[in-house]
Write a structure and sequence with these properties.
79% of the residues lie in helices and 0% in strands. With 61 residues, it is mainly alpha-helical.
Length: 61
């Protein structure tokens, strides 16, 4: 299992590389892991998604 620091580091790197599309890419990875039956890795990807959403900040209207 990844540490909180690793999760946030990876989330930041993905956002820098892919912009906010990184959130969708990480969510797709989580679904792919679930499809393979790898629940632990899927949980880590969802944690990364949550970290990116926090970094993104609230939605603007």
């Amino acid at each position: 299992m990844m540490s909180e620091v690793q999760v946030h580091t990876l989330a930041r790197q993905m956002l820098e590389q892919h912009g906010f599309a990184a959130i969708a890419k990480a969510a797709e990875q989580a679904q792919a892991c679930e499809g393979r039956g790898d629940a632990e890795e899927a949980r880590e990807w969802r944690h990364i998604v949550d970290a990116m959403k926090i970094m993104r900040g609230p939605h603007q209207s």
